[in-house]
Amino acid sequence: MEFYDLLAEYYDLLFPPDTAVCAFLRDRFQDGRHLVDVGGGTGNYAVALSREGFRVTLLEPSAAMTERAQCKVAALPDQERARLGVMTAGFEQINALRPAQVHGVYCIGNTLAHLTEATAIREAIADTASLLPPGGVVLIQVLNFDRIPHAEPFELPTLTGAGGQVSATMRRRYLPASDPALVRFAVELEIRSAAGGVGAGDTHLLEREAHETVLRRIPSAFLSATLEEEGFTLSGFYGGFDGTPFDPEWSFVLIVEAVRAGRG
After folding, report:
1. What's the N-to-C CA distance of the chain in angstroms?
2. Residues 118, 37 share a domain
3. Which of 26, 66, 156, 234 has a Cα-to-Cα distance from 202 of 20 to 30 A?
4. Which domain holds residue 212?
5. What confidence category does residue 221 fall into, taking pLDDT thresholds of 50, 70 and 90?
6. Same domain flag for 118 and 167
7. What is the DSSP string of 220-245?
8. Residues 183 and 88 in one domain
9. What's the average model confidence in pLDDT over 55-76?
10. Mean pLDDT within 184-203
């Protein structure tokens, strides 16, 4: 099974919607506007924002993820379902939304780092700028690459989740790459089952899958400069979804909010 197909099965256990993230996104966009969720997995935040009255289009490159997102959409009440769209596509295909009117774009979960060429990142941001009207907002969250070492492994927090008779654990670490502009992202996904339910006693291993992919390091200076070069005005620099200011030495993540320049 392809790794992201397996991950899609347990995505909601490992990445449940966070109320702080939902509130942060809601507060950065105007009510009722059309938003694009880039790389939104199984659609947890797209669904949450649709319930807040936003129209949301989910772009997700994994067909297994979008299949599960479509199931969530189908289960929604008619009014919410009408506000949600799902496309199997990545940031590179954001122009496929034309000529739809889009008012905001958000890309969280370190998704942008999967574009391994600096030119691809610039093109994605340029395409976003051309899609948004003046005053449109883009919000991008990546890990704080300013503090991730180049020459030694860097452990990320282990993710765990459980539901019914199954538990999932994801161990993650960054490893040095031969190109200093890149980093190797190593993941191990472990699925266990308990006959009496999670927490009821001994578990046994169902699946264990290891996966490695290459990511682009996105320093804060590069991201902010690229946004400005493509016609955005920086309006927020955060170190977390609680709104704390970004600190390059201590923040775990970088969240950049920017507004499309020009007159509406």
Report:
1. 48
2. yes
3. 156
4. 154-216
5. very high
6. no
7. HHHHHHHHHHTTEEEEEEESSTT-PB
8. no
9. 96
10. 77
Reply yes or no on whether the pLDDT at 232 is more than 80. yes
Residues 6+ apart with CB under 8 A from 181: 118, 216, 217
CB atoms within 10 A of CB 83: 22
Residues 50 and 180 in one domain: no
**154-163 sheet: strands from edge to edge:** 154-163, 166-176, 182-193, 204-216
Place of tokens 């804060």: 220
Query: Cα(41)–Cα(137) distance, rounded to whole angstroms?
Result: 21
Shared domain for 137 and 192, answered yes or no, is no
Taking the CB of residue 3, how many other CB atoms lie within 10 A of it?
16
Domain count, the chain: 2
Query: Are the beta carbons of 185 and 216 closer than 8 angstroms?
Result: no
Instruction: Read off the pLDDT band of 264 (50, 70, 90).
Output: low
C-alpha 239 chain-centroid distance: 16
